[in-house]
């Protein structure tokens, strides 16, 4: 006949004290152990999260710089086909759909309208002719804050 399952008692020696501990296969973590782990995780998140957030902002700024240069290259292709850059009134929408009265348009040069938005979801500002000497046009992103000027992630991004 089969014996009923019994808990086993094991004697554990720690720091010159002897104590009996009941070992069960379903024993888990104590509340203190869980609190220690949560405290360690909280400290790690507290140290790592600000660095990750800074990197994310920096990445968006770099993506905006690359997008401005990419659109500048696309505008050069547009000029080769049409003979001039889109006017300020035509804007960057002239890259996705043919502007009225433009001959030689061979687009769309950008397939999605989102291609003319910065990483913060705002449309790039476009001016042609440029307000800067020596440039044919201006493509501007106002940075993370969406306001002219600023420093760091809030700095404006303009084509070279």
Question: Could you describe the 3D structure shown?
Answer:
The protein has one helix and five strands; from the N terminus they run ββαβββ. It has 160 residues and is α+β, with helices and mostly antiparallel strands. It has a domain at 64-158: Glycoprotein, Type 4 Pilin (2-Layer Sandwich). The strands form two sheets. Strands 3-4-5 form a three-stranded antiparallel β-sheet, with helices on one face.
Quick take:
The chain has one helix at residues 31-82; strands at 8-14, 17-23, 125-127, 138-141, 157-158. The protein is 32% helix and 14% strand. The protein contains one helix and five strands.
| Count of individual helical segments | 1
Can you tell me the residue ranges where pLDDT is under 50 for at least 5 consecutive residues? none
What string, H for helix and E for strand, traces the elements in order? EEHEEE
Oligomer: single chain
**What portion of residues is helical?**
25-40%
Rg from alpha-carbon coordinates:
32 Å
Instruction: Please describe the biggest sheet, giving its number of strands, its sense, and whether it closes into a barrel.
Output: 3 strands, antiparallel
User: How much strand content do the residues show?
Assistant: 5-15%
List the helices and strands and how they pair.
Elements: E1 8-14, E2 17-23, H1 31-82, E3 125-127, E4 138-141, E5 157-158
Antiparallel strand pairs: 1-2, 3-4, 4-5
């Amino acid at each position: 006949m089969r014996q009923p399952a019994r808990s086993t008692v094991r004697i554990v020696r720690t720091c010159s004290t002897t104590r009996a501990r009941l070992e069960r296969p379903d024993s888990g973590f104590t509340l203190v152990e869980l609190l220690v782990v949560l405290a360690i995780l909280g400290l790690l998140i507290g140290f790592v999260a600000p660095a990750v957030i800074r990197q994310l902002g920096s990445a968006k700024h770099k993506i905006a710089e690359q997008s401005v240069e990419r659109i500048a290259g696309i505008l050069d292709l547009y000029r080769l086909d049409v003979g001039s850059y889109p006017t300020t009134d035509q804007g960057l929408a002239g890259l996705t759909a043919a502007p009225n009265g433009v001959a030689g348009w061979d687009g769309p040069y950008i397939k999605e309208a989102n291609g003319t938005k910065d990483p913060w979801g705002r449309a790039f500002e476009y001016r042609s002719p440029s307000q800067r000497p020596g440039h044919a046009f201006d493509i501007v992103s106002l940075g993370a804050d969406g306001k002219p000027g600023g420093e760091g992630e809030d700095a404006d991004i303009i084509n070279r």
